[in-house]
Amino acid sequence: MIKVENLEFTYPKSKKKALNGISFQIKEGEIFGLLGPNGAGKTTTQKIIIGLLKGYGGNVELLDKDLQNWKSDLYERIGVCFEFPNHYQKLTALENLELFASFYSRKTVDPHELLKMVDLDQDANQRVGSFSKGMKMKLNFIRALLNKPQILFLDEPTTGLDPVSSRQVKNIILKKKKEGKSIFLTTHNMTVADELCDKVGFIIDGKLNLIASPKELKIKHGKKLVKVEYLKGDKLIRDKFQLANLGTNSKFIKLLKGGQVQTIHTADATLEEVFIKVTGRQL
Amino acid sequence: MAYIGKLLVNDLRNILRDKFYVYAFVAYPIIFVVMTRFVIPWISENVYYLEPFYPMLFMMMAIMIPMVFGFITAFLIMDERDENLLTVLRVMPISRSAYLIYRMLLMTLFSFIYVAMFPALTGLVEVPFLLYLPVAVLFAVFTPVIALIINVLASNKVQGFAVMKTLGGAFLLPLFALFIAENWKYVFGLIPNFWTFMALDKVLTIGTHDYIHLGVGFAVHLALLAVLFHTFNKKF
Predict the structure, then answer these.
(1) pLDDT digits (tens, 9 = 90+) for A164-194
(2) ipTM confidence
(3) Is the sign of the CA dihedral B7, B8, B11, B16 positive or negative?
(4) Mutate to test the interface with B, among A47, A72, A77, A125 (most CBs of B within 10 A)
(5) pTM assigned to the model
(6) Is A163 helix (H, G, I), strand (E, B) or coil?
(7) Of the candidates B163, B182, B185, the residue with the CA atom closest to the CA atom of residue B174
């Protein structure tokens, strides 16, 4: 679905390369997260792939066709959700969606259905100017789904959302993945990336340091330990056990049998710890 | 092209749901008519005899029409700029340029209808309608020029007001050309509406078309539009 090879880009009047040899692929039904701090090159990469920046080096292929050979019909088949909400403030949520839907020649999703998906159906006839930031973000998100896109580009899709709305949006993203859509996600929120992405790429100073699945990374960079918290009297005690031979570790088995165990966790690294370890940079 | 109808409804909603635009769209045209139909003749009868200046006063008021409609267009585009909607439009399967051209054509059409009716509405000048028609088009073509100049020069609405105020004065300068008989008046030729004024002046004084002023007028407006549109697209 998306194939990026050796992507390079330098902004006019800048001597430094904003992107330096980035390569990755996103298959059908896959979520790829591009992670990195502000200014690392995430948005530049997205802008090139969606055709907003010209004059890049390397190759970009979308839906089996070179990006350079796509015309405006590309936008019939992709959906883009920008980081900041962009709407006609004086129009209602429904009017906004209907206007954008009119731009597509293919059949679009019923705006009411989309509004319902993110609990905005009650506010359909309210002007967007009176919406909270979270409501505007949700409207931004569902607008990207109007044309049933085969590829979705999501830039920080959960920013500014309360936990319930964030859950809703993440569930929709996972549903789209199940439907076979390819999803390109840029974020600096490691929890979102961890939860959603099949593969993540760490980008720093325009270079892609690593691509792997979050699960693999967390295991690879974690410690092979189990952390146990248990009660001894009314005191909470913490202990660690090596994963190897855990089944024959008599102290561990005794603890389990004693029924005083409160929590057990493996010592996987968090995605954030992996990022810092791999790139040497904080997010 | 089915979306054009939606865009038209969208633009009308955006205008009618904002008091400022409603005022500019409805009240200004009424004020212009009241000024020219009642206030100016009253002054001429009771305070100072103004009849020899009626053509000039007509031109002064008539050029305000594309300026007002251009100003509304500029601010509609600025609303889209502020909301980054111009970037969103670039990832839609429509041509953003076509979208902007449609918007400017629509407002130019409003200007044209109003300018075309202006002689009858004001009663300041008498001019055969068919003779006046191409001049009215030239007046109307000034609308997108104003819209784009404001957008190219101003980075926000406050600056937009300032640009409009400054240029508003500058665009009235070619009226002085009416008092200069010699070729010296052509120093105003760099200001696009100078040619509009001259074309109308010829129609009013000679009673026929003056193809040179009309032709140069259209050429100057279209060239300026091409440069401004190119600059706008590069900038946003």
Answers:
(1) 999 999 999 999 999 999 999 998 888 899 9
(2) 0.84
(3) negative
(4) A72
(5) 0.85
(6) helix
(7) B185
